[in-house]
Structures are given as structure tokens and as C-alpha cells.
Amino acid sequence: MSQSTINPDDIGNAYDTITHLWQREGFNRNNGIEAHKRAINFTDNRGNALDVGCGCTGRFIDLLQTEGFSVEGVDISTKMIDLARQRHPEVTFHHQDICEWEIENRYDFITAWDSIWHIPLEQQKPVLTKLVNSLNTGGILIFSFGGTTEPSENIDDFMGPEVYYSSLGTNGFLALLMKLGCLAMHLEYDQYPELHTYLIVKKLTLSDE
């Protein structure tokens, strides 16, 4: 699979074949939880929340519901969505490509943990812009990415199938989100020296600008 042929449907198809990795006994359901608790602490309101690339574990949905949010999920993998619906039949799930999906609702909290790093590099700016525009004023966005020094893209098969990754780089994401009127609340290389990084930003109110 070459980078030139990568599209989001390829990612959905790849994840359809490896849902067992998240269902096996011993899966770490605490992965990302402390980061999300930190992000939730920055919220002004706890209304609607969106889990982008929600997968099938439901761990972030469980946390957000416990914290008073009304949660929706979106994922491009058919099997992930099917499993998510079985786990949380009361939640609205969208089987959509985040690059193409026209988001209608507005949210106080959006998470995109280990998900949008799979979208094409040229879609990083449009998708981040879309997510910020879908936040209410004072809303929080948390997402993980590859903390590279420059924009990059690569293919990795460590999970089994070949899977594509892209990143604007740490400074690239920070510059974009500041331009979009966000305040960086927390940045962490949480698996250093690996490049796994997450960022929490807040959509500023007029009085904050």
C-alpha cells in the first residue's frame, strides 16, 4: 500500500480486521483516561461531547457520561461502530469519514484520541478547523498526534495490516490552533521518548482574545 493510494476507507477496512485487539482480555482500558480527566477539568460547560474515531471500547464515552456529558461517537470502521452500538445502545453513533462528514451539532468537548492521525496529511488542517468550528465557545478539544518536528506521513504495520499516519508536527498543530482562536491548555509527550503526543486546547471566548 503506497502513501499515494491511502484514503480513509482504507483505514476503516484495516480496522475492521483488527477489532479483536481492543476486545481481548488484558486490553488497557486506562489508556488515555488521565489525559481526558485533565481535559475535562478545563471545561466550562458539560453539555454535548463527541468522540472522533470512537472505536469499540467505549472507555471515553463511559468517562464523559460519568462527568455529565451527552456523548456521540463517530468512526469510519463498520465493525467498530457495530461493536460500539452493542456496548452503548443509548448513544448516537455516526458511521462517517471525518474528512467528509458535515457536523451539524455543537459540542462542549471533542476528543480525537489516536484517530485523526490516520487521515491524509492534506486533510489535517481542514479536519482540525472543522472540529474547532464545531465547539461551543469555551469548548475543549483533546487529540493525540505524532510529535514530529516537521509535517510528516508514514505507513506502519505493527498492528498487522498496513496503516497510514500523518502529522503536521508539534509546532504545526500549535500554529494552526492558535490561528483558529484556541488557547493551548496542555501539551505532553506522554510516552517519551516515543513521539506519541497529546494536546488540549480551549476555544476562546471574545473576552479571552
From TrEMBL:
Q: Name one Pfam family in it.
A: Methyltransf_25
Indicate whether Ubl conjugation appears among the record's keywords: no
Domain Methyltransferase: residue ranges: 50-139
GO annotation, biological process: methylation
Q: Which GO terms describe its molecular function?
A: methyltransferase activity
Q: Which UniProt keywords apply?
A: Methyltransferase, Transferase
**Which segments cross the bilayer?**
none
Cross-referenced PANTHER family: TRANS-ACONITATE 2-METHYLTRANSFERASE (PTHR43861:SF1), TRANS-ACONITATE 2-METHYLTRANSFERASE-RELATED (PTHR43861)
Write down what this protein is called: Methyltransferase domain-containing protein
What organism is listed for this UniProt entry? marine sediment metagenome
